[in-house]
Amino acid sequence: MGSRVRRMCGDLLVSAGVLAAVIGVLVSIDTRVREQVHEVVNAASPSVGGATIQLREIAFTVVEAARTQSIEHAPLVVFAVVATVLLLALARS
Fold it and tell me: Exposed e or buried b for every residue in 60-85, given b needs 16+ CB within 10 A?
């Protein structure tokens, strides 16, 4: 049971790391995402309602930027998806 919990925690950390890496790449590439993240980081005293709205706006901006970048760089996205699937298949075996 302990190893199962440890594995779940490890998977959670890996997933959070990958998400942080994707957001980091989008922040470095797309100015819209950079501006949204900058607004949230520099907010003086966000309330719970205001923070929720800001997080929703950031999520929308990240999704829009990812869609725009994936459309502009479609061959690279296809390569990355295929490489990820192959990596996961090799890691399972």
Answer: ebbeebbeebeeeeeeeeeeeeeeee
Q: Taking the domains of the chain in order of start, what are their residue ranges?
A: 2-92
Residue with tokens 């999520």: 59
Q: What is the pLDDT along the chain (93 residues), one digit of tens a residue?
A: 678 888 888 888 888 888 788 778 777 887 877 887 777 777 655 566 666 777 788 778 877 877 787 777 778 777 877 888 888 888 776
State the DSSP code for 93.
-
Within 10 angstroms of residue 34's Cβ, the number of other Cβ atoms is 15
